[in-house]
Amino acid sequence: MAKIDLARRAQIGLGRRAKSRSQLVQAARALLSTRAADAITVDDVTNQAEVAKGTFYLHFRNLDDLRAAVAEELTCEFDELLQPHRAGIADPVERIATGCTAFIAQALRDPAWGGLTARGIWAFPPVAKAVHVRLSEDLHHAIQQGRLASVTAEVGLDIVVGVVLQAMRSAGEQQLSSRDLPAIVSAILRALGLTADEADQIVRRISEPAHPRYHIVQNEQQPGR
Questions:
Q1: If we measure between CA atoms, which residue out of 185, 187, 184, 195 comes closest to residue 149?
Q2: CB 104, CB 164: distance < 8 Å
Q3: What is the CATH number of domain 70-224?
Q4: CA dist., res. 134 & res. 148, Å (int)
Q5: Above 60 in pLDDT, residue 71?
Q6: Is 202 helix (H, G, I), strand (E, B) or coil?
Q7: Backbone phi and psi for residue 220, each to the nearest 5 degrees, phi listed first
Q8: CA distance readout (Å), 202 to 91, 115, 137, 163, 224
Q9: In the prediction, which pLDDT does 112 show?
Q10: Cα 49 to Cα 116: distance, rounded to the nearest angstrom
Q11: Which pLDDT score is estimated for 5?
């Protein structure tokens, strides 16, 4: 009689469990990229994931738990996307411009991600908080330096988030290309109080090979060309 490897069997079971959980989270993300959260049912999720309804309840108590899992993933993705674009850039206005470019470029590269983020950011408090904290920090620094004297941090937050989310929504609907990026980012900077010349200079600077994040931004823009 063959010896049963209980450790191996347990490992396989854990792998299958992780796979089915991932399928459910990815299904929810796909659905949330095109539909409102309150319009999605457990049946919708399990049908999208191609798993049995009972599998859903092995991982989540309810849809709120599933949405929390999606929010956790998005928050990590936001940090991973933002932090590289903040590091190595001393000017807070350039950090804002580079972050805006990175988010819109990511939405162009992955329209489903753009749609999910644009539709769901305010539905997921942890995600909204992550954006608010990072962006507010840069806005406060820019205001303290006298760079954005015409707006408050609260107004600046509304301007940046509003324009970027609309651009991401358009990218998610494939109504935007990477050629539009410089004009969008320049418009955001002008709305924050920079002159047209200042805004255009920053946009050009973050596209120069010598800029710390040039290669990341260029690589993200490439698929939309």
A1: 195
A2: yes
A3: 1.10.357.10
A4: 17
A5: yes
A6: helix
A7: -70, -30
A8: 10, 27, 19, 18, 22
A9: 86
A10: 17
A11: 56
Radius of gyration of the chain (CA): 21
| Whole-prediction pTM | 0.76
Per-residue CA distances from 177 to 123, 170, 174, 223 (Å): 27, 9, 8, 9
Which of 19-33, 47-61, 75-89 comes out lowest in average pLDDT? 75-89
Count helices and strands (H / E) in the chain. 11, 0
Q: Which residues of 92-117 are buried (b: 16+ CB within 10 A; e: fewer)?
A: bbbbbbbbbbbbbbbbbbbbebbbbb
**Buried/exposed 30-59: b ≥16 CB within 10 Å, e otherwise:** bbbbeeebeebeeeebbebbebeeebbeeb
CATH 1.10.10.60 domain extents, the chain: 1-60
Domain with CATH 1.10.357.10 in the chain: 70-224
Domain 1-60: give its CATH superfamily.
Homeodomain-like (1.10.10.60)
Q: What per-residue confidence (pLDDT) applies to 70?
A: 92
In the predicted structure, residue 223 carries a pLDDT above the cut 50: no
Quick one: what percent of the chain has pLDDT higher than 90?
49
Q: Is the pLDDT of residue 127 over 90?
A: no
* Res 195 pLDDT > 90: yes
